[in-house]
């Protein structure tokens, strides 16, 4: 006997499931990604490291490495370092000799702080450029900014443009921003694809490098060539409080802006069309990210020269620690980049003391094997 209940059971058993339009609607809205368009997989990978304690541990590590970097070298003791810093902060401490105080406050502390700020900025810029271009090899110098900064520096150093009113760092800053303006003009606007951005950046970088070489060959002398070469290696020896202030303001603002775009950067992992379907304004987000990366990189390069590999390997190391969610990746990359560059500069100061090795040389020597190790681990995974 067929009853109404058996008919209902048969209907449920043979039901084809929800309509395709319903599934597509959930996919477009991001509901299947765990709410707010953020993949549940990214959340699980972030939670595996223990969300709260890792940033605190990295902050403690940054402070510990910074204090150690200021005190190493045998000239001042940790107690003298603390006394110098406390005295300049207005705390009641016994005064130090003028030489010791100058070593700590005018030489070492600005150098260490600039290394931390530059490392944080380069790491965050590399992170977001890898996200928006979907290119694992993207780094802050992808946009030709480093080559443009070199051109600006050599124009000031060799040709004397500005009549002494513009310093080497000022010329580098103007040159880096001019190179990015050229990239932005050739990029094709908001609709530019990731491949076009990379190609335009490479072309502009090569053009600026050619102009730099031409100026050095035609008008440069041995002293100017040697000085520019040392600057291009990336050195923190000329760090001053004015450079620290400039980079701190620019990098701080950039990191805040990038952190506010964390959800949009997550969506870029699925491609441009998928990000648009999740409600992300792809064109605006890409322009904002590129402008932020250009400003931070130009300010950093103008202060410390071209220091490579920080923006390339640190984001990959951060992803291995916390996964792919940018709300955690941005601060983690900033802290890890600060530690990495401070350690690189400290090694450069101690390795062949009293001769100092530029930090850019140390980051390259450390970066190549670390990057190979990261690639090998990702292949095994």
Describe this structure in words.
By secondary structure, this protein is mostly helical. The chain has a single domain, classed as ABC transporter involved in vitamin B12 uptake, BtuC (Orthogonal Bundle). It has helices at residues 4-13, 20-29, 40-47, 53-71, 78-88, 98-133, 145-158, 168-187, 194-219, 222-232, 241-260, 262-267, 272-277, 282-304, 310-322, 326-350, 359-380. The model is unreliable at 1-50 (pLDDT under 50). Helix 11 runs antiparallel to helix 14.
Q: Give me the secondary-structure category.
A: mainly alpha
CATH hierarchy class name? Mainly Alpha
Shape estimate:
globular
Strand content bin:
under 5%
Structure summary:
The protein is built from 17 helices and no strands. With 381 residues, the protein is mainly α.
Main attributes?
single chain, 381 residues, mainly alpha, ABC transporter involved in vitamin B12 uptake, BtuC, disordered N terminus
Describe the secondary structure blueprint for this structure:
Elements: H1 4-13, H2 20-29, H3 40-47, H4 53-71, H5 78-88, H6 98-133, H7 145-158, H8 168-187, H9 194-219, H10 222-232, H11 241-260, H12 262-267, H13 272-277, H14 282-304, H15 310-322, H16 326-350, H17 359-380
Helix pairs in contact: 4-6, 4-16, 5-6, 6-11, 6-14, 6-15, 6-16, 7-8, 7-9, 7-14, 8-9, 8-14, 11-14, 11-16, 15-16, 15-17, 16-17
């Amino acid at each position: 006997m067929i009853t109404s209940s058996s008919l209902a059971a048969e209907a449920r058993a043979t039901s084809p499931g929800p309509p395709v339009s319903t599934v597509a609607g959930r996919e477009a809205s991001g509901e299947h990604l765990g709410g707010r368009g953020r993949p549940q997989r990214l959340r699980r990978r972030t939670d595996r490291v223990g969300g709260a304690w890792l940033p605190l541990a990295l902050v403690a590590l940054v402070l510990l490495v910074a204090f150690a970097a200021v005190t190493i070298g045998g000239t001042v003791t940790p107690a003298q370092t603390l006394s110098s810093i406390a005295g300049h902060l207005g705390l009641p401490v016994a005064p130090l000799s003028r030489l010791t105080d100058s070593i700590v406050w005018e030489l070492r502390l600005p150098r260490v702080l600039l290394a931390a700020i530059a490392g944080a900025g380069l790491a965050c810029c590399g992170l977001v450029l890898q996200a928006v271009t979907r290119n694992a090899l993207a780094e802050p110098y992808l946009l030709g900014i480093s080559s443009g900064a070199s051109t600006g520096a050599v124009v000031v150093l060799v040709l004397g443009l500005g009549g002494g009113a513009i310093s080497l760092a000022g010329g580098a800053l103007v040159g880096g921003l001019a190179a990015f303006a050229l990239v932005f003009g050739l990029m094709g606007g908001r609709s530019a694809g990731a491949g076009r951005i990379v190609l335009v950046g490479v072309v502009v970088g090569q053009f600026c490098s050619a102009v730099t070489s031409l100026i050095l060959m035609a008008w440069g002398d041995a002293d100017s060539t040697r000085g520019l070469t040392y600057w291009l290696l990336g050195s923190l020896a000329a760090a001053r409080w004015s450079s620290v202030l400039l980079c701190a303001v620019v990098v701080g603002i950039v990191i805040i802006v990038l952190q506010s775009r964390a959800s949009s950067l997550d969506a870029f992992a699925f491609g441009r069309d998928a990000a648009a379907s999740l409600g992300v304004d792809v064109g605006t987000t890409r322009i904002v990210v590129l402008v932020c990366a250009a400003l931070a990189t130009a300010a950093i390069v103008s202060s410390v020269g071209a220091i490579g590999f920080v923006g390339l390997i640190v984001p990959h190391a951060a992803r291995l620690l916390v996964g792919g969610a940018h709300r955690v990746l941005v601060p983690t990359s900033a802290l890890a980049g600060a530690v990495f560059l401070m350690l690189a500069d400290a090694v450069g100061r101690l390795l062949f003391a009293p001769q100092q090795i530029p930090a850019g040389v140390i980051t390259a020597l450390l970066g190549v094997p670390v990057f190979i190790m990261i690639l090998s681990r990702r292949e095994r995974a």
